[in-house]
Write a structure and sequence with these properties.
Layout (H helix, E strand, L loop, with lengths): L5 H4 L19 H8 L5 E8 L2 E7 L9 E2 L5 H13 L31 H5 L13 H5 L4 H6 L15 H15 L3 H8 L10 E2 L13 E3 L1 H12 L13 H7 L4 E2 L6 E2 L4 E5 L2 E8 L3 E6 L4 E7 L34 H4 L6 H15 L8 H4 L11 H6 L34
Antiparallel strand pairs: 1-2, 1-11, 3-5, 4-5, 6-7, 7-8, 8-9, 9-10, 10-11
Helix pairs in contact: 3-7
Length: 428
């Protein structure tokens, strides 16, 4: 995983490294970023420490102030909006049952267990319903009503049991926000996250009923993603001290509530949790290497974006011009989906883009890493294990796609022309 390496090198600014006998020699953050240019999928990197950008790069002509599709990393933003709705009293708590809110879309012959699903179950991917992600994603978004289609999935587990990664669960949260506030999730995001300087959602897909897609198909600049990450790192406070989200909601979202059956990572409310290089790390991830890392002990926030389709460019159709948020959903400004089995067969081609992210991240958090152990090599998440710095940023390891990765395969990236890297100050 290429992008994970980058966070670790910035820790050398804080601590004197202790070298293991077989560890790679210490290198500067500049050297790490220069080497990262060889990683083909990598498009942008921003490293921020104590609220100040200490390094930023755009590779291959990509800009940090141009929008890109952050994919499933947007699930953390949906989580934040739910937290704000609870703070405002719009929602009762994470224990609130969803059936009374979404009553009109419940199936007529619903399994009685649907009455037990809570908002917290949706946030932690423990609704118990068969996932809409992976091979089911194309069929789901081809339906006439995404909310109803998500609620009519068969139960494969009890609510509150194991983690079943499903963008359908996250989309139900967007529907709940829309229902309870009487306005779109996008409008809520503009108002509630407005106090964050530099934050803006520039494009966002909607379902046939006009509900903004919860947890996928959201575009923003890398700077915007950084601004959101800084809000979370600072416990819900904007730079001017404005309270955007309560500290309690931030803590709740970043606490472990379940565990991924694919990677073994703990999972909170939209955030994955893992100890990386000896540091407790929270991260949001979107398919192909759209990453947001927060390392609280190091006051570190890192953003990385990548080209998800770098291994199948020859087979990619020309991109449609990007449409502004709010256009008819059938225009698919962020990429068109299909339920064709032939398309899903090529999902593994872009798995290495996500794999690359972890390598870069690891190099940033801890520049002197021991080599890959035989024990870690046997784990399903072995591509996330930490290696020596040189190996982290140079060697290409294949990995199983993360939870829900297949759903994201067919969304084209928004290209970034060459430009300056000064962060724009805009809240819309």
């Amino acid at each position: 995983m290429m992008f994970r390496s980058l966070l670790l090198a910035s820790s050398m600014l804080l601590t004197t490294p202790v070298f293991a006998q077989d560890a790679a020699p210490s290198r500067t953050l500049t050297e790490v970023l220069e080497d990262a240019e060889r990683l083909e999928p990598l498009e942008t990197v921003i490293v921020s420490q104590n609220g100040e950008i200490i390094a930023e790069r755009g590779y291959g002509g990509h800009r940090l102030d141009a929008p890109t599709n952050i994919k499933s990393a947007s699930k953390t933003i949906i989580s934040a909006l739910i937290g704000i709705a609870i703070d405002k009293g719009i929602l009762e708590s994470t224990d609130q049952k969803i059936a009374p809110i979404l009553h009109d879309d419940l199936p007529s012959n619903a399994d009685p267990r649907i009455e037990d699903i809570t908002i917290g179950d949706l946030l932690t991917m423990r609704a118990g319903l068969e996932p809409t992600s992976g091979v089911n994603y194309g069929r789901w978004v081809a339906s006439d009503n995404w909310v109803r289609a998500a609620l009519t999935r068969l139960f494969v587990d009890d609510p509150g049991a194991g983690m079943l990664y499903s963008t359908g669960s996250s989309h139900l949260l967007s529907a709940i926000l829309t229902q309870q506030t009487g306005r779109s999730t996008s409008a809520n995001a503009r108002e509630w996250l407005g106090p964050i300087p530099g934050f803006a959602i520039t494009s966002w897909e909607r379902d046939p009923q006009g509900i903004y897609l919860g947890g996928n198909q959201m575009a923003m600049t890398p700077y915007s993603l950084l601004a959101f990450g800084e809000l979370c790192r600072n416990g819900g406070l904007a730079p001017d001290g404005t309270r955007v989200i309560s500290q309690a909601r931030i803590d709740q979202s970043r606490s472990p509530h379940t565990r991924s059956i694919r990677t073994g990572d703990s999972y909170g409310y939209g955030w994955f949790l893992r100890n990386i290089g000896g540091e407790d790390t929270r991260f949001a991830r979107g398919f192909g290497g759209q990453m947001l890392y927060i390392v609280p002990a190091l006051d570190l926030t890192v953003v990385m974006t990548s080209d998800r389709n770098h291994r199948c460019r020859k087979h990619r159709p020309p991109r449609r011009p990007t449409q502004p948020a709010g256009r008819n959903h059938r225009h698919y400004p962020l990429g068109r989906y299909s339920s064709s089995p032939r398309l899903w067969a090529s999902v593994r081609l872009s798995a290495s883009a996500f794999s690359a992210s972890a390598k870069v991240f690891s190099a940033l958090v801890r520049p002197n890493l021991t080599r890959f152990s035989a024990a870690s090599a046997s784990l399903p998440a072995r591509a996330l294990a930490l290696r020596a710095l040189d190996s982290e940023i140079i060697s290409a390891m294949s990995s199983s796609p993360p939870d829900g990765s297949a759903e994201d395969k067919h969304c084209g990236t928004i290209r970034h022309p060459i430009g300056t890297y000064s962060a724009p100050d805009r809240s819309r």
